[in-house]
Amino acid sequence: MKCKRIAALLLVASMVLAAAGCGADNPSKVVAKVGETEITKGQWDGYTALACYAQGYDLSQLEETKELQPYLEYLRNSMLSSLVSATIIEQDCAAKGVDVLGDTYEEDAKEFVENANKEIEQFLTDNKLSDEDLERFYKSQQYLVYLMNETTVSVVDAMEYYENNQQRFTAAEDMVRASHILVSDEALARSIIDKLDNGDSFASLAEEYGTDGTKSVGGDLGPFVYGDMVEDFSAAAFALRVDEYTKEPVKSDFGYHVILCTDQLKSGSVQPYEWVEDTIMTEMQNQSYYDQLDQLRQEYDVEYFVDGMDEVIEDEGNTGGESGEAADGETGGAEE
Q1: Which of 29, 90, 187, 228 is 20 to 30 A away from residue 167, measured at CA?
Q2: Residue 30 and residue 121 in one domain
Q3: Of 170, 184, 200, whose CA–CA distance to 323 is shortest?
Q4: Does residue 336 belong to any structural domain of this protein?
Q5: Taking all residues of the chain, what is their mean pLDDT, rounded to a whole number?
């Protein structure tokens, strides 16, 4: 599936440091058409570089080995699909008289380009990216976000899906849901434990003292299995009873944690709806989004002139097949 392959690629990307370009093909070569609108190899390369960089990965730093090549090809093809999708949405909005960009678009796009040239100048230089590439990327995102925002999923539908697919949310391992307060100083962690002993709210203390992204949600890490966290953190969390917190700070490479167990689940039990609601809603929204794109692809004349696109399009149409990951305990939400 698409997301698994890209995840594997990005894992490799984080470990490979030798430079490589996107290929020596003629940048003016047409790689796709939407109606009469042509998309060139140069436009595709520029979009791919920027889209991946926006997710924290610089493809120019990859060594394209024989083992990595299929992943890179798949990733680049999925980026071409994204660029084509944005073009389709743009044409459809124009045909229907829908103004997606708004009155301030030119000013907003100019500001985006100017900021990019200041903040990622070296990246733009290394990848030979122009202001035109930047504006094309910015514009495409407006259309893709527009369609995603137009895609809604009701809680009723999500709950119905949950009820009809209980087997997909059965925990394969024991699970714990926990919150934590991460600080850099052991003395502060002990002070927080003292405050908890005196009846202070864990969520309030997390918001006040926490140093990671969970502070805004009361320190909630979501549900996880033992192996999702570093050993010391997992050992402490799984040793707690529900509503019990650690009486000693738990040290990790990230700092010092005060951990609160908020729920537990035994292997073979169905995860509560609230544990998997976000996963279901996201999955259903993505499926609906790609269903709409598929419908638009049928309404507009789309041609690809590169190999491997059928696989990408097929995977995009089957995004719903991955929700079973939640049944394995891979719910995400933890940084450790």
Answers
A1: 228
A2: yes
A3: 170
A4: no
A5: 87
Q: Quickly list H helices, the chain.
A: 2-13, 41-54, 69-96, 105-119, 121-126, 131-150, 155-164, 186-197, 202-209, 231-239, 273-299, 309-316
Cα distances (Å, whole numbers) of residue 119 to 62, 111, 125, 309: 22, 12, 12, 33
Do the beta carbons of residue 242 and residue 176 sit within 8 Å?
A: no
Q: Report the C-alpha gap between 302 and 253 in whole angstroms.
A: 50
Question: Considering the domain boundaries, does residue 165 fall inside one?
Answer: no
Q: Are residues 8 and 144 in the same domain?
A: yes
pLDDT per residue over 46-73, tens digit each? Answer: 999 999 998 887 777 766 677 778 888 8
Q: What's phi and psi for 245, nearest 5 deg?
A: -120, 160
200 and 84 housed in the same domain: no
Q: How far is CA 262 from its chain centroid?
A: 26
Same domain, 185 and 302: no
Do residues 197 and 78 share a domain? no
User: 220 and 254: one domain?
Assistant: yes
The rounded distance, in Å, linking the Cα atoms of 243 and 231 is 21
As given in the structure block, the two tokens for residue 71 are 């992943």
Residue type, 194: D
Same domain? For 234 and 142 the reply is no
Q: Is the pTM of this model over 0.90?
A: no
Let me know whether 179 and 316 are in one domain.
no
Q: Assign 296 to helix, strand or coil.
A: helix
Angle, in degrees to the nearest 10, between helices 309-316 and 273-299: 130
Assess contact for 117 and 124: CB atoms under 8 A.
yes
Give the tens place of pLDDT for each residue, 185-196: 999 999 999 999
In a domain, 235, yes or no: yes
Encoded tokens for 42: 């140069």
Strand partners, 177: 223, 263
